[in-house]
Structure formats: C-alpha cells, structure tokens
Write a structure and sequence with these properties.
It is built from three helices and no strands. It has 68 residues and is an all-alpha fold. Helix content is 71%, strand content 0%.
C-alpha cells in the first residue's frame, strides 16, 4: 500500500482503531516492566520519578512516523 492510501479517511479510521487495541493490550505489561525496573534498581523511587517525569505527554510513539 502506498503512502497516500493510508491517508484516506477509511484507512485512517482503521489505523486509529488498531492502534488503540495495541495500546490497550500493552498497557499492563508496560507498567509491570516499569515496576520491575524500579524494583531492581539501586534507587527505586528516583527511577519511578524519572519514568513518570519523562513519560508525561509522550503519547503514542508511532504518531507521525508515517508522516515523512
């Protein structure tokens, strides 16, 4: 599929829905990974604070990846 097909409203709606499904499916494993990382670090509270600070406002990592 070429880049202009993905921009069609029909394809954008499908892409949005599939992205939300993936986000929902990875939410718990991602948070569990953060807790495990903090648990094994030398400074767990600082690790959690850093994750919270750096993750704020990031949103979906794939947003804009196809808009080149």
């Amino acid at each position: 599929m070429t880049w202009f097909c993905r921009r069609a409203p029909r394809h954008q709606a499908f892409g949005w829905a599939s992205a939300r499904v993936v986000d929902g499916g990875t939410l718990i494993p991602a948070r569990l990974g953060e807790v495990i990382d903090a648990a094994v670090s030398a400074r767990p509270l600082a690790t959690l604070a850093c994750m919270g600070r750096d993750g704020r406002g990031v949103g979906d990592a794939a947003v804009g990846a196809t808009d080149l």
